[in-house]
Design brief:
single chain, 397 residues, alpha+beta, 13 helices
Length: 397
């Protein structure tokens, strides 16, 4: 778990309407270096603006390093990849897809985090991929519901370190085989700037990453610690929600001891198997006194939480086995009442205006085929994680 840094300036960015203009402004203002990581980078109207900003920065002499997930960006257009590289943008792929039809356990280990760092000064952390937030939306739907933050201050040092560490580890693989001269050229081109760690604000913040090394459980343990300490309220909005037993028990125990627990979950069928598997948990949650609300206005992609109106989490990690056991994720934990209450107000507005509360009778009155579908999907997810070999302990104490 990363260090808790004081004196940061953290700005909440709600949906693409706030995130993309803020990111583009920072890219256009970059003078020395841009580092960017994402799971999906799609060349639609939004993605093209970002790609052109990256190329313009490279042409004016900015070092631009872009790391894309090999599965999420498997269909990234070749002509745009060539254009980016011709402009001087360094593009690399994390675990690139080679034999897409061949089943491999390692395919599940994805780069799912969404991070950007400009001039070692301004960082972006969140859950928003680089594509239009009306993608897949109907004419009456709201844009995709999601969050990110812009941050300056001492915590930027940890963001810079984790991004550079992964960038160099991905880049070193093929270069080691090509000899020390190629490695030397890479290091000379990618010079580490000193992170601007001067005090920038009043918020305390901690970067939490999940990887397959020292930080396997960092995000889950952070959630567990705060849920077990909660005294008044737990508010979670999470698009893909299938917690393991430890988190389930912690949430139910909190509700039974009098903590008000509200979950805002996906109401649209996005990933069908996970969508219906989640409903396997509804009965225990409702019986414990937890409120479940399903977002209805459009597709939901949020991964945030507020506990006791002072502790907040914003990032890329879902609360499901794929994020908590397999993927590389990055969340920012913020401890500051004003920030937490601002996020809380936005989440409650979504619940009150754009969600419906799940009633217990919906479960008892569900048809047999619908119950069977829930059982089947839950079993498929559980079996898939166990077969993958990465699920030890997730479904048992």
């Amino acid at each position: 778990m990363g260090r808790l840094w004081r004196h940061n300036a953290v700005t909440l960015l709600c949906d693409g309407a706030e995130f993309f203009p803020a990111l583009l402004a920072s890219l256009n203002a970059a003078r020395r270096q841009i580092q960017l990581e994402t799971y999906i980078f799609r060349i639609d109207a939004t993605g093209e603006r970002i790609a052109r900003a990256l190329m313009a920065a490279a042409r004016r002499g900015v070092e631009v390093n872009v790391l894309l997930d090999g599965f999420g960006c498997a269909d990234f257009p070749d002509h745009w990849l060539n254009a980016l590289r011709a402009a001087g943008v360094n593009v690399r792929f994390f675990r690139p897809e080679v034999l897409r039809w061949w089943p491999r356990r390692s395919r599940l280990r994805r780069l799912h985090r969404k991070l950007a760092l400009i001039d070692a000064h301004t960082a972006f952390v969140g859950g928003i991929n680089l594509h239009d937030d009306r993608d897949n939306a109907g004419p009456e739907d709201a844009p995709r519901y999601d969050y990110a933050v812009r941050v300056c201050g001492p915590v930027v040092a940890d963001i810079q370190h984790t991004m550079r560490q992964l960038w160099l580890s991905v880049a070193f693989g093929p270069l080691v085989a090509r000899g020390p001269q190629a490695l030397t050229r890479l290091l000379s081109k990618s010079q580490e700037l000193h992170a601007d760690t001067r005090p920038a604000g009043v918020q305390s913040a901690r970067l939490l990453v999940r990887d397959n090394g020292r930080h396997r459980l960092s995000i889950e343990q952070s959630y567990l610690r705060q849920i077990r300490r909660a005294q008044h309220e737990i508010l979670i909005a999470n698009a893909y929600f299938l917690p393991g037993l430890r988190l389930r028990h912690a949430l139910c125990d909190a509700a039974r001891r009098g903590v008000k627990v509200k979950l805002l979950l996906q109401g649209r069928v996005d990933h069908a198997i996970l969508h219906y598997a989640t409903r396997m948990l509804y009965r225990d949650f409702l019986n414990s006194g937890i409120e479940i609300h399903e977002y209805q206005a459009g597709y939901m992609h949020a991964k945030v939480a507020v506990i006791d109106r002072r502790w907040a989490m914003v990032g890329s990690s879902n609360i499901d086995p794929f994020s908590l056991l397999l993927a590389r994720e990055a969340n920012l934990q913020i401890q500051h009442a004003d920030f937490a209450q601002g996020l809380r107000r936005h989440m409650l507005n979504k619940i009150q205006r754009h969600a419906r509360q799940v009633a217990p009778q919906e479960l008892t009155q569900a048809s047999l085929p619908k119950r069977a579908l829930v059982w089947l999907c839950y079993g498929l997810v559980r079996a898939g994680i166990q077969v993958s070999g990465y699920g030890g302990g997730y479904y048992q104490e």
